[in-house]
Each structure stands twice: as C-alpha cells, then as structure tokens.
C-alpha cells in the first residue's frame, strides 16, 4: 500500500507543478509583445488544426467501429487455413 501512496503522491506533485507552470506561462504571455491582441493572426491556424485533428479522430473512431461491426476484428481459427 505504501508504494501506491508514493506513486500517487509523485504523480499529484508532478501534475501540480505542471499546472503552476502552465498558469505562469499563460499569464506571462499576456505581457509579451502586444499581449493577446497580437495573437489574432494565428487563430485561423489554431482553428484549422483543431478541425483537422477532430476530423482525423472522428474518422479513426468510425473505422474502429466499422471494422468491429463487420467482423474484421474477430479472431480467426488458424487451423482452418
């Protein structure tokens, strides 16, 4: 039981440290250059990237369900071949 507590404690500390860093980076970025207003030109690329990743994830999910529903994921009896 002690090993699990150590692993969970280290994982929590790592996630907490990352959260503190992400918060610091978010607020520090607002003061660099022109602030959040200077990020305007990159929003189309961010939105495009999110849409492409969502489309790819949706396609791969559809493919996984399609193959499962049509028997492509079933085990094959190798002795019959």
Summarize the model shown.
The protein is built from two helices and no strands.
Give descriptors for this structure.
mainly alpha; 2 helices; 81 residues
Describe what you observe in this structure.
This protein has two helices and no strands. With 81 residues, it is mainly α. It starts with a helix and ends in a 12-residue tail after the last helix. The mean pLDDT is 86.
SSE topology sketch:
Elements: H1 2-29, H2 43-69
Major β-sheet profile: none
Shape assignment? flat
Distance between the termini: 49 Å
Approximately how much beta-strand content do the residues carry?
under 5%
Helix and strand element order: HH
Helical proportion? 55-70%
- Secondary structure class reads mainly alpha
- Rg is 23 Å
Q: How much is the average pLDDT? A: 86
Q: Could you list the spans in which at least 5 consecutive residues all have pLDDT below 50?
A: none
Tally of individual helices: 2
**E-strand count:** 0
């Amino acid at each position: 039981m002690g090993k699990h507590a150590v692993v969970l404690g280290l994982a929590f500390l790592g996630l907490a440290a990352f959260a503190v860093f992400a918060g610091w980076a978010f607020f520090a970025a607002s003061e660099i250059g022109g602030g959040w207003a200077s990020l305007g030109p990159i929003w189309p690329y961010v939105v495009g990237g999110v849409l492409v990743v969502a489309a790819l994830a949706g396609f791969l999910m559809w493919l996984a369900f399609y193959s499962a529903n049509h028997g492509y994921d079933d085990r094959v009896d190798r002795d019959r071949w």
